[in-house]
Amino acid sequence: MKEIIKKLTECFGPSGYEAAVRSCISAELPKGVEARVDAMGNLIVHKPAAGKGGRKVMVAAHMDEIGVVVTHVDQKGFLRFGNVGGVRLNPLMGGRVRFADGTIGVIGMEKVDDASRLPALEKFYIDVGAASPGDCPVKVGDVACFHRGFEQLGTRMVAKAMDDRVGCAVILQTLKVMEKSPNDLYFVFTVQEEVGLRGAATSGFGVEPEIAVAVDVTLTGDTPECPPMAVALGAGPTVKIKDGGMLAHAGVKDWLMRTAENAGIAYQREVLVAGTTDACAIQVSRAGVPSGCISIPTRFVHMPSEVVDAGDVEGAVKLLSAALSHPIDIGGEKS
Amino acid sequence: METAPLVRELTEARGPSGYEAEVRETIRRHFAAHAREVRVDALGNCIALAPGTAALNARPSIMLAGHMDEIALMVIQIEKGFLRVTEIGGFDPRVLFGQEVLVHGRRVLGGLVVSVPPHFTDPAEREKPVPLNKLFVDVGLPADEVESLVRVGDLITLRPRWSTLANGYASCKSMDDRTAVAVIVLCLEELAQRGHAWDVHGVATVQEEATMAGAITGAYGIQPTIAVAIDVTFGAQPGLSPAETVKMDGGPCIARGPNFHPVIHERLMATARTLEMPVQVETLAGPSGTDAWGIQVSRAGIPCGLVSIPLRSMHSPVETVCLRDIERSARLLAEFICRLPVAFADELVIPDALGAERT
Amino acid sequence: MLLEQLSEASGVSGHEEEVRALLLPAIRDRVDACRVDGIGNLIARKKAKGSSSLRVLVAAHMDEVGLMITLIEESGLLRFAKVGGIDDRVLPARTVLIGDKKIPGVIGVKPVHLSEKGEAEKVMEWKQLSIDIGASSKAEAERLVQRGDYAVFATEYRSMAADLSAWRTVQGKAFDDRAGCAILAELLSERQDFDLIAGFTVQEEVGLRGARVAAYAENPDVAVVVECTGANEVPTTRDVSPSTRLGCGPSITIRDNSFIADARLVELFTNVAVQRGIPHQFKQPNIGGTDAGAIHRSRAGVPSITIAVPARYIHSPAAIMDLNDFENTIALLREALPRLSGALTPLRRDA
Question: Which domains are present in chain B?
């Protein structure tokens, strides 16, 4: 899966501008599969059930990545910018960004009076090599993604936008390799997750599933002096129990864990204190959709170099395929 | 039925947000005693239906909503037998410090919320409260036993300790919002003896403390004509200004503000006056922090009211109420419902504003 | 003039009755149907002149930020809470009008002579302030006002610019978004070749509440929100742009904190403005939010855009707006709306 992950992570796709990612994924879809694009830009792929008695399941991974948006071009051709999604301040200084047309920019920073504190976003600017607004190739409103290539580190892979291109790769691969399923499946590549789960909210309403599973990244607790979390790279995909926005439906969580145990797939129990996923929006759609999430442990989330483990990624594909290929029991009316 | 035993049974039951199964069972039994049907929806809301007597094709409905979930903690990591936790819903960490809890692992274990004892901390640190990320739960067992009994994601609830206080007051955990569920039970009990035109959906909702997912999706599924949420509000106590609190034993509080339809507010107030019942007005200038906020904007909009029970020490193990306020709230709602004519639904909207102007 | 009446009307989020009462007679002869829903939105429909089935929602919000009376003290002074986002620093020494009877009151302040050292460095928090209506007891006050009453700033609408000025500026309260309401009422004079749904929404300032309900009920194919947005041109030494500027025409939103405008609609409005020579500007990205935030994510998604009149000092007792910008906003919408049907080429998988 290294090739598809490399291709997807290197695509340009800040929230609101997912067309290139959508196009790349479309080219990878199995021939003849039913796919449409909805009003927001979500790519909805339908794999009808083979047989009866299954449930209608939506699987979601988001195509968009965090980035920056130009808010001002100053008199000397420097760009001021705002955030698209949860951009972290620490890695900005000296970083590079790439605009839709390929223009590259370098992020600079004003002098700081107090070196012990991170300056606010207003103190940063981008240098695209222009000397005035007149010769600047970029205008207010243009967006850029962070500019970093894909690298392999042994069994680990690093790139920008692993969040959530690795999730897209997982559900794409699942679609390709899974056996026939009694369940009616919708693989939805969503837009605008990073700015408020917007694509998930609308596609969840449109698809109207009975059950939903998102595939996204989660943090780890295995780096020096990090906030405590019982998730580590290389110990398998996680089944989410809770995150900052939702409580996974108990029946969905149990179904995914049971599937992993029965299939001998190593998995981790995930409680994420801050941050959430598309599942949070789908769960409150219409009259309620029992929802859960399979996560890929990732180091340095929302930084330009996010690190995942190839084994965890493969494990996620196996888990998702196994879960979707069989009849699903998430409990129901408690007696 | 007797208020105190009902409230005690409900508050002592377990039901953290997302894991309400145990308390839902208790609620279901009570609902079933007074309503014609009881069902559970996709996310776990428990919904009782007491049908009205109006003609089926012109029968409006009212949804009563009180949340059954309680705030709780969840295990995020196990370190040398000590449990690191995160919260589900909002705790003041100063209130948790030193409290007794129940850890729901492979079996239920008693535990204490602890931190490094003062003798071993910096003097500067001792001046400050211990934040949640420095609190642990100690179940008093060897580390390997803890590892076999407790897992990441297990839930931790406050150990219930019911106190019957003087003057009809009582204290326990989860008065927020099990007292509201008690109000719905008592209301359904009274309605079963009386006639009412409107359908009544009594709903014990899930996840209000975490995401409000229960109220949002429940309202979508039920599609009631109007809704009244029932919750608790801040009873007067030292340190709080009268502008932000209500009187204990002062009767149910009927809220005014953008979240609430003025006609429903007026009618609830008028009903209280008819019953010569003490009642208070609560002003909420923005989000109400209750199920009503999620219900009001469901689908094409649902006009809402809010009835609140005065409560002291909210979100602590010693939430305190006056039981009379619970009984009054139930009677008020039953009377309100029984007096609702079918035509009341028409007072809340103007379907033809041009025609109304011309006449 | 409708804008003047709307500006001076009292309509804090949750109590927009007076604004509805002004709008209804203004639009009744221009629309085919009109209703008020359960949250208070005023929703009017103007049917298409042809056979198109396109449904377009054009929305402006009727509510303004203001105060709510929370307590009447024994002394006769009133305590209040803020409704919507108000900077505490604009509150001291204001005159307000309370309730439907518009009882005047003043937010009193400590004389500077008697303030303690260092006090002038701290902001007066809203919780410390109270409103004086001249009552000397709780009983006296209760004859005039009650808890839950809403209060607005007492600001008259007035013209600022002399006849010879290039700007036609006016000062008043609640241009956000009574300017949008006035513009929407004006747009209803024309029949389009699609069904036009005019949504005069409520409770935008407390969470885009009315718009969410209106969008669900009306289920439009596309939405245009008409707003009044902040222009912050107070001089600074830094080379940064104000969000928008007075005198430069309507602003087109590319993205704000509540939504990302549909790129096809941004292109449409930009092209129309350029072709028709209508001055226009782009609102600085990532500032503020509007009803489009709720509408665009309604049901399965609604392509949306926000077009706004710039005004200085919105959300304060007095804002300043240029009527040239106001009229150019109407002009841009008038020219662009008929071209909506052609603008929404479907999104493709491979592009």
Answer: 3-70+173-347 (3.40.630.10), 72-158 (2.40.30.40)
